């Protein structure tokens, strides 16, 4: 049961990673409609991931074994792969979030300046010395 749940969780994370990488490229190419289309898909996958993770937690909690005996060798391999995929998704999602924030900030600043009939000066918009953007 745990093996099947771990495999399904890894598959879900692979899909989330793939869509997130696609969204990063779409933001870079200003294909914002494509990013918006993926939002619902990612929400559904995130919900599925949450359910699967709860199932994993329940399976492990029901085993009542010491930590070093809780996994079979195959389960341990899959659990380690699950952790790697989760770390990768976290890393890519942070990249996506930084790009999305930058684009949103740009459009909000531009819109505010246009509505207030001010001169648009890109050099004076959001400046934070700790903020680093990598494309």
Structure description:
There is one protein chain. The chain is mainly α. It contains three helices and no strands. It has helices at 2-28, 32-62, 73-115. The longest helix has 43 residues, at 73-115. The radius of gyration is 21 Å and the shape is elongated. The two termini are 41 Å apart.
Can you lay out the helices and strands and say which pair or pack?
Blueprint: H1 2-28, H2 32-62, H3 73-115
What is the gist of this entry?
With 135 residues, the chain is mostly helical.
Distance between the termini: 41 Å
Question: What's the count of strands?
Answer: 0
Shape: elongated
Average the pLDDT over all residues and give the rounded result: 88
Structural class: mainly alpha
Round the Cα radius of gyration to an integer and report it: 21 Å
SSE order, one letter for each helix or strand:
HHH
Strand content: under 5%
**Major sheet description:** none
- Count of helix runs: 3
- What ranges have pLDDT less than 50 throughout 5 or more consecutive residues? none
Helix content: over 70%
Structural features:
75% helix; elongated; 0% strand; mainly alpha; 135 residues
């Amino acid at each position: 049961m745990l093996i099947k749940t771990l495999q399904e969780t890894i598959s879900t994370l692979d899909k989330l990673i793939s869509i997130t990488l696609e969204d990063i490229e779409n933001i870079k190419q200003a294909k914002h409609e494509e990013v918006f289309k993926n939002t619902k898909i990612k929400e559904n996958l995130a919900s599925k991931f949450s359910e699967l993770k709860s199932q994993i937690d329940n399976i492990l909690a029901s085993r009542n074994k010491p930590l070093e005996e809780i996994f079979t060798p195959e389960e341990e391999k899959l659990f380690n792969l699950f952790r790697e995929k989760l770390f990768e998704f976290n890393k890519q999602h942070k990249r996506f979030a930084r790009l999305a924030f930058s684009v949103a900030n740009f459009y909000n600043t531009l819109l505010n300046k246009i509505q207030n009939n001010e001169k648009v000066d890109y050099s004076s918009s959001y400046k934070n010395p700790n903020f680093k953007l990598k494309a």
